[in-house]
Sequence to fold (723 residues):
Amino acid sequence: MSFEIPIGPQHPALKEPISLRMTVEGEVITNADIRLGYNHRGIEKVAEEKNWTQNIYLAERICGICSHSHATCYVQGVEKLMELQPPRRGLYIRYLVSELERVHSHLLWLGVAGHEAGFDSFFMYVWRDREIVMDLLEMITGNRVHYAINAIGGVRRDLDAGQKAKVLEGVATLKKRSEYYLNLGGTEPSFVARIAGVGRLSRELAIALCATGPTARASGVARDVRKEDPYAVYDELDFEICTADTCDVLGRVVVRIKELLESYKMIEQMVRNLPAGDIACKAPRKAKPGEVVSRYEAPRGENIHYIRANGTDRPERLKVRAPTLGNYPATVEMLKKGFIADIPLIFAAIDPCICCAERAVALIDARGGETAVVRMSDLRRQAIARHLNAPVKGNAAWPL
Amino acid sequence: MAALRTILYLLVYPGVLFLFAYSTFCEWFDRKAYARLQNRMGPTHTGKFGLLQPIADFVKLLAKEDVVPAAADKGLFAVLPAIALAVVSTAGLLLPVWNFDLARPTWTSFPGDIIVILYLLSLPTLILFLAAWSSTNLFSTIGGARVLTMLFGYEVPLFLAVLSPAILADSWRLAEIAAFYQARPAYLLFNLLGFLVALVAVQAKLERTPFDIPHAETEIVGGTFTEYSGKKLALFRLAFDIELVVASGLLAAVFLGGFPGGAVVGFAHFAVKTLFIVFLLSLLRALTSRIRVDQVVSFSWKVLAPLAVLQLLAAILLKGFLP
Fold:
């Protein structure tokens, strides 16, 4: 018996709205279909209305987990456009926050993977340890989620000796714990039984479908912007690209935990070799006409921002390609021939950040299936009409 | 006097009232142990140490809106939670806690009651399947299919494991089995393997991690319970709590030497032994991740069933050799 099950737009396994339509035979998936556009916020359009500095904070709000990735990717591009050379100390602090963010993002993902597999103890332990890195980020930047440490031409805040010591101390603790999780995640029989051999993506398919980040690296594709196109400080750091050749969810877990260990290595190097000097240089208000593509290795994969300037104080165009978007075609392939029980695991294994990837929206008639283009003024008229026709609701009574 | 005793037995201890209070306590204990194993606090605020939290949850659910899907089989959908509760409470009466006389079998303790209690503990699984099927939800239907698939896995090892101590004791009556092992405590060691098998099978029967597949939240939302809400869900949850108590009571009676010493000492035995088993079940829940339904079946038949058969053989052989 073949039937369709809808996973999403609202589903406990999904933290953000996306629609996965699975055609299943019994417990086996025969076909998968992904529908996007439930969380489109029109960020690219808003960016054209804001000036270069305001857009840092807008770019940061593209994602709630890898907020720094988008802000940094944008700032890198703008600095290239303005031909600015930020001071070394500023760059070190900026990419120190980048690596701390990668640690927090990977720990978050690890916990989620545990929860999707029904391994809640793992989830609770990992998220307890994630607090350490969240506290470090708060200490350095003042915020837990949207750090807002970037400025065009450097960073906003300096690091003092006490903070450096605390970062090293926190990282030392996390290192020990991560080694334990690497051991646990790779050996706990019931967990491994769930994730080994699940969601296979061969090396050839990973390349053909343009998978990025840990998803590609778990299929044996050693692709990492930090190594192959080293930006800013990464050519001075000693680290390795982590890959796995199991091509399954287990590989993605192992790759991410190994990346954690590499990040700790980089954080230690950056803190110990922090150069002296200024943390930022003065940025001009306007950028010369031109265009730039900025690449950045976000925790989820390669993040690309395309920025075009027309000589004013605001961008003419900002185009964002979030890493999750690059991984969707591979996800469809991974889901096929899997079990229903594997859907949350396979989908979570690309570490989806759904609203990051929402760059467009299509209006499709739910009954007829026709697509339509609706003008903003039409939408507004419809909204007013609906409001006027809505039944009168009883006024809430507030006795006190 | 006998009638009064029976009424007390039915309504107070270990009847409905006691089962309600004790099963909520066991739920609290399970939640607390599980939470502490995960570095959390667990229930803290409702009552001393959060002891009243399960009761508060029960009352809260009773007060919630009760929605019945339009496409559901309304009668069946409504009556199943009550049947589940009745069945597991009835099973609770058969535990040899207090109201039994070894010399004279009564209707709560008779030769063959071990079979009846196993049968009564199997019924909730079928009720769950019917509940899932009658609610017609897609996720429930998948959950219901998973309930039955799992049943075929763990039921046989559970029966084999629980019945082998009975074979060694040469009785089908729980009270006599318990008395046999009370007289020869060293014999309990022979059944250790069966105890482990039964523990895992009971975990599967109660649908707790790693066997919480029929209501795996991240896969099929609420699974069997997707459409249940309000009073009906409250009754189902209570039925599961009571099933936890009865199943641990059964394991305690068969594998841990029962509950000797009349009403008071017997109760102490009952509390300590069932809590010990509940703790083991919590430990298992905290240490594992959910496996797939096909893995449950293959695990049951490749690991649990052979071990249970081994236990059965051991019981039969031992019976021939031991005095």
Summary: Residues 43-329 of chain A form a domain with the Cytochrome-c3 Hydrogenase; chain B fold (CATH 1.10.645.10). The mean pLDDT of chain A is 87.
